[in-house]
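--- STAGE predict ---
source: upstream dedup step, 1 unique chain passed
mode: sequence only
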Amino acid sequence: MTNGTTSSGAPRIAVVGAGVSGLAAAHRLRARLGSGATITVLEQRDRTGGVLRTVDLAGVPYDVGAEAFLARRPEMAVLLAELGLSGEQVHPTAAKASLRAGGHSAALPAATLLGVPTSAARLDGLLSAAGLATVAAEPALPLGWERGGDVALGGLLRERFGEELADRLADPLLGGVYSGRVDALGLRATIPALAAALDDGAPSLTAAADAATPAPPPARGDAPAPVFGALSGGYRVLLDALAAEADAHVRLGTTVRELCPQETGWRLTLGPTTAPEGLDVDAVVLAIPAPAAARLLSEAAPSAARAAAEIELASSVVVALAYRGEDTAGLPPTSGVLIATGEPLSAKAFTHSTNKWSHLSPDGLVRLRASLGRFGEAATLQVDDAELVRRVRADLATLTGISAEPVAVHVQRWGGGLPQYGVGHLDRVRAIEHGLPAGLAVAGSALHGVGVPACIGTGRAAADRLVEHLTAHPAPV
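--- STAGE serialize ---
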């Protein structure tokens, strides 16, 4: 039917993108609209999940996309409860992270805000005497801050704390979150609490970090509340449950080439140019990377399309390995290691998964993963899988002395996997969201955070926007 409704007048909604944002949107739409609505999820890849993926690494479910989520954010807990999966949530062990800088590894300094030191930070062993002196002198430097402004985080840190702090601490920390360089990331989108503290009149960056650092969460019994969480069966447990509960028509391997407004609703053009297919619906969620959304929005919402086109993407690779326990005597008892800028290593981080998550070694094998690639480094990743594994194993030998053959390996490439939150990112997001016509919503990591809870939140918010529209403008019978 050309108006995208069923004969009973129940709405039809298309969700473009079957990552966690899109599946969360589909699930929310089903919960609010009931069984009568027709929900179609369109995914270009041959699987759901987007940049979340769980593989069997030597027979154990193992995530090779996002590894953990912030347990302090409510979105995941709420969704797991709705799906009956609260019992799947697990938390890290007490193992601590380390940092590789200046040719040696040491404990990751505490009391920093994503690498921005508070007055309680202790950076001995990480910075040189000159670097420590620069950090100590920062509170006395005059601070020229334009309230409401935005700057490149790296430039601000270098100006206030010096080169070493930016390269050895902030860059590896933020590179792990965004696969980006600290010099290209905008302060206001990446550390909004720090920007807010500066807006409120903090006299220095150190004082702003003090004010912006959240209070410790309430303890659970004798132990502090965990900061991070994961799922014992991997993210595929969540993805499968979302797809099942959404009861949507999921079409994999389907390209959406055009999105055009109709007199009532929207027409999506699917498939190859040689055999196009039209799909008419009442409302659409776009849960796809920003450049792809920009192309589809070019006719329907040109101002939003222009803003989305300005958001760049970074590519990365995860190499997962499993070893016999007797071959890993050199592995330190840490949760992993971040690698500072300038170190003669290929990886930007290693996660010692067996140390970090107690559920990942039921068979005595040791599992770990390496992350490679930052924004602007895509060319360095354009080698075959064997070469990537060779580089990772060479790094592992340098860091731990482990040189044995792994018993299992998985290489996961993420082309354009993470959006870059540059200077002015929040303005771009506002332009996208405010430039959308009724019946159209966006979701995903390009908006309000790259973490899984943030993506879930955008998917649910997009669904709620469309439900409000469909309620105010019910489909004709």
